[in-house]
Amino acid sequence: MRGKRTATGAALAAGALAVTGLAFAPTAAAVTPQAATISASCGIFGGGTATLTATQSGTSATITLSSSAITAPVAVAQDSISSTLTMAKAGGGSVVFSGTKNPAMKTGDPVSVGPLPGTVASGDSLDAGGGSLKMVIFGVTVNCTANGPQSPGPFVFD
Questions:
Q1: pLDDT exceeding 70 applies to what percent of the chain?
Q2: Among 77, 91, 127, 133, which one is most buried in terms of CB atoms within 10 A?
Q3: Conformational region of residue 43, where left means phi above 0, alpha means psi within -120 to 50, and beta covers everything else
Q4: Considering the domain boundaries, does residue 22 fall inside one?
């Protein structure tokens, strides 16, 4: 009987050590900053300040864009806007985030698209300034361009 208690105690101790190890394990890769703002122009569809929110898990990243300065000209169903966000990469090139994710919006609601998925590498520094956003809504293409770099600075991925 004593041997069974020792084995059970050893198993419990090993389990506790494993849980403690998980508690001190390094956290998942992160992007900094997690949010930034940009001023953009979307031609006849308006323009103004937009907020970009980024997340990262390994080489997968998402960007969500929302703006109260740019409003929906008509009611839009959930996941009906085809969006392509191109972000300028420090040192040259670009990274594209695209998808058809958006909340349902009534006429006049603030525009929001995303999360738009994309692939990043460790050390990538991406800025919406120098990039563009293309949205296709009911067959109508809306092109938005940034009026300058994003603030407080580019997204840097781990």
A1: 82
A2: 133
A3: left
A4: no
Strand ranges for the chain from DSSP E: 31-32, 35-41, 47-57, 60-71, 82-89, 94-99, 110-119, 125-137, 140-146, 155-157
- Spatial CA neighbour of 66 closest among 126, 115, 106: 115
* Range in 6-15, 90-99, 102-111 the model is least confident about: 6-15
CATH code (residue 94) = 2.60.40
Decide: pTM greater than 0.85: no
Q: How far apart are CA 19 and CA 37, in angstroms?
A: 39
- Selection from 126, 47, 57 nearest residue 85 by Cα: 126
135 located within any domain? yes
Q: Which domain holds residue 121?
A: 31-157
**For the chain, what is the domain count?**
1
